[in-house]
Every structure is written in structure tokens, then in C-alpha cells.
Design a protein that fits this description.
single chain; alpha/beta; Rossmann fold; 2 domains; 10-stranded mixed β-sheet; 23% strand
Amino acid sequence: MKILVPLDFSPDSVKALEFAIGLRSGKKTQVFLVHIIEIVYDFASQAAIALDSMYKDAESMMDKLINDYSSDEIHLEKIIIEGTASISLARIANEKNIDLIVMGTKGASGVKKILIGSTTVNLIKESNIPILAVPEKSRIEQILNLTLALEFSDHEIPLIQKSIGFSKEWNLPLNFLHIQSSPNFKDKLAAIGLKHYIESTYDEKNSKVHSINSESISEGIETFLRINEETILIMCHQHKNFWKQMFEGSQSIDMAYHIHVPLLVMS
């Protein structure tokens, strides 16, 4: 598996690296450590000096991380470039045929949340590659399974297969979660159908299908996570243009701002 880990050398980004390495389940993994230099120049004469200093500092910190975390099973490669973080990371991920992006995340609120967002959220909007957002308090040793949240939509069929692939790659059982905002016969029938579909396509005997009644998807997920904290939540993100994102929102992006367990977003 090829994993990209964006680094700003904060404790959160280093934790994301440790999380990515901890998920490998004994398999050989190639990890690209990427640092994006974003800088605004006030004077042209200062540009060369500032860039040279930033590159040297980044090189030094990258080399230390590579020395600390490399092993026979983990190959670490560094990339340091200038650019806009989300756009540059999406481009590098496509060029390197990355399977997964793992990055630390922090919350945001108000106007900043709607108009600016964090690098993690901007990357979710830019990239078609699965992104695993790792909150500050996540602990790899506590992860016991994966939980895929479903809406019973056609676009989720490939998502189920991808989730099964991650389950096998990380040797973690995959569970399924459906939030019912208005429980009725159709929802109950869909839940039964999902159970039979999973049994026919996924051979993990410990897999469970959870159905929770809630007025909203986000509230239902939060209720589930309060008693199931040892999981990586998987959600689907459908790309929207700016105005649709502004007014309609996105459940996966909304969760990325305040979730307290790792969130794997796939589109």
C-alpha cells in the first residue's frame, strides 16, 4: 500500500504518521512524507533567504523522522515543495498513485468553517483518494474495527467493496451503521437486505449491522460513537460545487470538523 502523510511537523501531523504506520498490520508499506511550503513574500530580496531557510529546516526534520520511523517493512520517502497545501497534496497523490492519505485534523467553526476550512477538509473536496483524518485524541492501540456509515444509495456500492479491502489490509473487522431518521417498513426492509448482502459479499463472521433511530445523521453517528469509540468511522463524500457545499453541506465534511475518532472519507 502507498500512503501519503502531509507534515507540518506539529505533534498532530507526527501522530498521523504514527497512526499510518500502526495500521500496516505487518505488511510492507511505502509512505510518502510531504511538506508543503506556503509563503507570502513582502520583498523579493527576502524570498531566496526565506525559502532556503524553510527548505533546510524541513529537510532536517524530515531526515529525523525517516531515521526514527524507517524499518524493513516501512519505506519512507520525503517530498518538499512550494504551493497551496490541498491542491499540491491532491496532485502528488495522483502522480504517485497513492492508495490512502493520512493526516491530522483540528476543528473549526463559524465563518472559517464555511468559507475556509482546514487543509484536511479542503483536501477532501479536492481529492478522489480516500482520506483518513486522525483527530488529536485518537489512539491506534484502541482501534478494534471499522464502521461504515451507509445511506442505502447506489453510489455506496463501490464504497462497500473499498471498505472491505481496507478491512482485510488492516486485519480489522468491518461493521455497518445505518441511521434511520423516520423508521418505517422500507427502512426496516433495507436493513434486512443490507445484512443479507453483507453476508453474501463479506466473509467476516464478526461483522455487525447497527441501526440507530435519530432525527439527523450526525446526531445518530455521535450517539453510536459515544458507546463505540474503538473504531474508524468510514463515510462517503460526494463532490459538490462551492454553492451546493455552502448551502447543502456535507455530512462527511461536517463530521471531519468535530469527530473524536479517526474518520476515513471516500468519494
